[in-house]
Amino acid sequence: MSRVGKKPILIPENVEVKIEGEKVSIRGPKGELSHDVRFEIKAEFKDGKIFVSPNIQTKRTKTLFGLERTLLYNMVLGVTVGYEKKLEIEGIGYRAAVEGDNIVLQVGFSHPVKIKAPLGIKFFVEKNLITVSGIDKELVGQVAAEIKRTKPPEPYKGKGIRYMGETIRKKAGKKAAAKT
Fold first, then answer.
1. What secondary structure does DSSP assign to 44-101, as a single string?
2. How many other C-beta atoms can be found within 10 angstroms of the C-beta atom of residue 151?
3. Alpha-carbon distances of 26 from 10, 11, 21, 72, 136, rounded to whole Å
4. Which of 44, 45, 117, 121 is most exposed by smallest CB count within 10 Å?
């Protein structure tokens, strides 16, 4: 049994939980999320807490037990607090701008790169910092990864888009390699 899966999820006062069979819907001040719990796992709402327990004892149930509890917990945090990822742009002439729902990146290509925000995602740009925010943790991470994938940081000068606080291991250039 998973230690994480055994812990109940405490529900704040301003959050509504509705469980209909395998579908769990959670509504809070920031929005509403829903998730289909796997048939091997059972979710129950009692006394202001969500309890997750295995429905069928299989090897697969043991692997999914803690995962389903964590996904439900992330939904509760998302509708109350929300999630955000910050990305840094580094490089001369590299910049980003928000145009409606799109973010426009100018990162050294001959053309600007436009990325459309999916439903529930918002972009904020401040100098060389891009903030991706929303209530769905998985979607926020996916959109941030797509932005980073347009121009990942290169190992010689470190130019590109990286997560805030991410360190890039730099390689020695030709001059340093020739001296050895």
1. EEETTEEEEEESS--HHHHHHHHHHHHHHHHHHHHHHT-EEEEEEEESTT-EEEEETT
2. 21
3. 13, 10, 14, 9, 12
4. 44
The residue assigned the tokens 């999820």 is 9
pLDDT value at 77 more than 90? yes
Q: What tokens appear for 117 in the block?
A: 């925000």
The strand order across the sheet containing 102-106 reads 95-99, 102-106, 113-116
Check residue 167 and report its DSSP letter: -
d(CA 106, CA 109): 7
Task: Judge whether 109 and 91 are in contact, CB under 8 Å.
Answer: no
Domains contained in the chain, CATH given: 3-80 (3.90.930.12), 83-163 (3.90.930.12)
- Per-residue pLDDT for 109 more than 80? yes
Question: Which amino acid, 60?
Answer: R
Q: What is the mean pLDDT of the chain?
A: 92
CA pair distance 131, 143, nearest whole angstrom = 11
Contacts of 51 (CB under 8 A, 6+ apart): 8, 9, 43, 44, 45
